[in-house]
Design the sequence.
């Protein structure tokens, strides 16, 4: 039976980290390694994780170089054949998410990367859907047409991580985008879109808190194409904005 490693990165997440830990712990699929990488939080995060230490596999709390540096640490520590990332303010949509994911990897062994759908929910009401990120099957012009898989829904074979560099920590707001662009566009991977909601993501992430962060993220996204020697289409940013707005209407 394949093992899934779930990496959770946290920093001052006292209000949400316990929900995330329980979301992994309560999954019906049990062959799970849950690794929590904390950036030396100065609130109650570390105490809450310690209280729940019987539910997780590994816990490290130390200064780091940011979110993506912490993700890289977790990936390097992982022992599972399949790796997923669950942010410290996110939860799985239901208790069968990992069971459904591992079923695909078991029944279609050539799959390298799996992703699904994601919903944004209110911070204090996980059942109140505000935005629905519905994905689609990958195709050659997927990124060119303003699409990108919801990063928290990605499950990737560890050997794929070994073959590719991890997150580029020079990108502060879009390292996940650069990684996915590089992974999908420059590799001949077998991808699988699972048309199910996999993740509930609370509103209010770093990028969405200030308009200047959204602006900086878009600059990093354009630079992601440049450093990978790919040219985005002229309409690229416009169609990205349009598709994000559509997610609010189609919830």
Sequence:
């Amino acid at each position: 039976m394949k093992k899934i490693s779930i990496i959770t990165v946290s920093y001052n997440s006292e209000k949400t980290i316990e929900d995330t830990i329980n979301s992994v712990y309560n999954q019906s699929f049990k062959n799970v390694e849950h690794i929590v990488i904390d950036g030396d939080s100065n609130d109650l995060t570390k105490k809450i994780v310690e209280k729940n230490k019987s539910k997780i596999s590994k816990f490290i709390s130390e200064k780091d170089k940011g979110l993506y540096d912490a993700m890289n640490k977790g990936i390097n520590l992982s022992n599972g054949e399949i790796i997923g990332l669950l942010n410290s303010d996110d939860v799985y949509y239901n208790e069968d998410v990992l069971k459904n994911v591992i079923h695909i990897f078991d029944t279609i062994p050539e799959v390298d990367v799996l992703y699904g759908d994601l919903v944004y929910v209110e911070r204090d009401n996980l059942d109140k859907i505000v935005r629905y990120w519905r994905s689609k099957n990958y195709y050659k012009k997927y990124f060119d047409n303003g699409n990108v898989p919801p990063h928290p829904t990605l499950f990737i074979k560890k050997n794929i991580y070994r073959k590719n560099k991890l997150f580029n920590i020079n990108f502060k707001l879009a390292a996940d985008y650069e990684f996915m662009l590089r992974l999908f566009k420059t590799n001949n991977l077998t991808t699988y879109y699972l048309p199910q909601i996999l993740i509930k993501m609370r509103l209010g992430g770093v990028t969405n808190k200030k308009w200047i962060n959204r602006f900086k993220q878009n600059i990093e996204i354009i630079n992601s194409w440049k450093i990978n020697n790919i040219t985005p289409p002229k309409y690229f940013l416009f169609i990205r904005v349009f598709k994000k707005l559509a997610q609010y209407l189609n919830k």
Summary: The first helix runs from residue 17 to 25. The chain has one domain: 4-249. The chain is about 35% helix and 25% strand.
